[in-house]
Design brief:
The radius of gyration is 28 Å and the shape is globular. The protein contains ten helices and 18 strands. The strands form six sheets. A five-stranded antiparallel sheet has the order 1-2-3-7-4, covered by helices on one side. Helix content is 37%, strand content 18%. The protein folds into two domains: 90-355, 4-Layer Sandwich (Chorismate synthase, AroC fold); 361-442, Chorismate mutase (Chorismate Mutase Domain, subunit A). By secondary structure, the chain is of the alpha+beta class.
């Protein structure tokens, strides 16, 4: 089934179903030498996982990530990075009564029409459960962006028709709705619980802000940055609308109101007085904060009786059983952040190909990788030295071979000279290596 891969230079492919054994992701295009902290990935997954509060589903998944390839001793190797999240709290039996019924708002009918088969257990591949894999990948992308000073902040701007009046980033993670306004969060929570008590659900708006984005991300004409961000965010199942900057509000403004005056600040940087464009001009980031919003639909799985048909075409009614979110907005927040991060890092990778430039972080990562490879080579040399020592011992030969050491030293110093290295330093380094070799061989039992 195509359509499971996202990105161009920095790519991901997710796999797994809601009530299968696991969900996961394979990432390709991650350069070697980057530090990967499993705790950071787990922290992002914990933000998305179910069972966090009364305004989210009661399904209780630990969402513990397992990295199975692409990382060695905390560093990326440059090979495909694969992460798996095992499903541990599936209740597929809850869907047995509904397996012949199409659930309104779900993909059962369209999947069946397209593929001739549909997993009725919680929607299978079309379930929001798939987004756990996106968040795992997004955590890696966010970490790589943060190394470049780029920060991504998401929050629930509106839920149940109640909108935040103030934006305080410090408040976001202090309430169940992930709202940046404590007062609005309380009112949102009441609206969500009222809908839940009525067997219903509510939707809302999630806003994502990118702080300190570089200038130049995005490729005209069809790969505009906002176009790829729209695709990324609209690929989230619960999202039904997208806008950047003023978005649809721009349709009600005059050009003089919607344009962003341009100036050069005291540091010489080109800036805009306002940010109606949301940080993107002509499909390319302009260096101002990137501001995005998505409309999140009310959760489709509700306990209210609804009209539907069976897979055989007969009329029926349905009440959706199981454990579902009365408002999905707070759990969409980390998913939206992840899709933005994946898109930005993909475009950043494309930009670096266009204008190769080593950052301080990438240079340090490269140096760390070289140092690591030196240690690997020393370990290999030591293993071979032990084998040579055992051969010498069996043959009754002396451990020390000064003639060979001198020959090696002369040869390596000639190479060091060609490479422009400090000959005295290289001579001392090789002397230490020789002493280590002799020590290993002499200590053989």
């Amino acid at each position: 089934m195509p359509g499971n891969t996202f990105g161009e230079q920095f790519r991901i492919m997710t796999f797994g179903e809601s009530h299968g054994r696991a969900v996961g992701v394979v990432m390709d295009g991650v350069r070697p030498g980057f530090s990967i902290d499993t705790a950071v990935i787990q922290k992002e997954l914990d933000r998305r996982r179910p069972g966090q509060s009364r305004v989210t589903t009661a399904r209780s998944e630990a969402d513990e990530v397992e990295i199975v390839s692409g990382v060695f001793e905390g560093k990326t190797t440059g090979t495909p990075l694969c992460m798996i999240i095992w499903n541990t709290d599936q209740h597929p039996g809850a869907y047995d009564k509904m397996k012949t019924l199409f659930r309104p708002g779900h993909a059962g009918y369209t999947y069946l029409a397209k593929y001739g088969i549909s997993d009725y257990r919680g929607g299978g591949r079309s379930s929001g459960r798939e987004t756990a894999a996106r968040v795992a990948a997004g955590a890696v992308a966010k970490s790589l962006l943060e190394q470049r000073g780029i920060q991504i902040i998401g929050y629930t701007l509106e839920a149940g028709g109640i909108r935040a009046d103030t934006i305080d980033y410090d408040v976001i993670e202090t309430n169940a709705l992930r709202c940046p306004d404590s007062s609005a969060a309380n009112r949102m929570g009441k609206a969500v619980l009222e809908a839940k008590a009525d067997g219903d659900s509510v939707g809302g708006i999630v806003e994502v802000v990118v702080k300190n984005p570089p200038v130049g991300l995005g490729d005209p004409v069809f790969d505009k940055l906002e176009a790829d961000l729209a695709k990324a965010l609209m690929s989230i199942g619960a999202v039904r609308g997208f806008e950047v900057g003023n978005g649809f509000r721009a349709a009600r403004l005059r050009g003089s109101e919607n344009n962003d005056p341009i100036f050069r600040d005291d540091s010489g940087r080109v800036r805009t007085r306002t940010n109606n464009a949301g940080g993107i001009s002509g499909g390319i980031s302009n260096g101002e904060d990137i501001v995005l919003r998505v409309a999140v639909k009310p959760t489709s799985s509700i306990a209210k009786e609804q009209e539907t048909i069976t897979v055989y075409g007969d009329g029926a009614t349905i009440k959706v059983e199981g454990r579902h979110d009365p408002c999905i907005c707070p759990r969409v927040v980390p998913v939206a952040e992840s899709m933005v991060a994946l898109t930005l890092f993909d475009h950043l990778t494309r930009q670096e190909i266009l204008h190769p430039k080593e950052s301080l972080a990438s240079l340090r990562n490269s140096i760390d990788t070289i140092d690591q490879n030196i240690l690997f080579l020393l370990a290999d040399r030591q293993r071979m030295v032990m084998e040579v020592g055992q051969m010498k011992k069996r043959a009754g030969k002396k451990i020390e071979d000064l003639r060979r050491e001198s020959a090696i030293l002369r040869k390596q110093l000639r190479l060091a000279k060609k490479l422009g290295l400090d000959l005295k330093l290289i001579e001392r380094l090789l002397s230490v290596v020789f002493r280590l070799a002799k020590s290993v061989q002499k200590n053989l039992a």
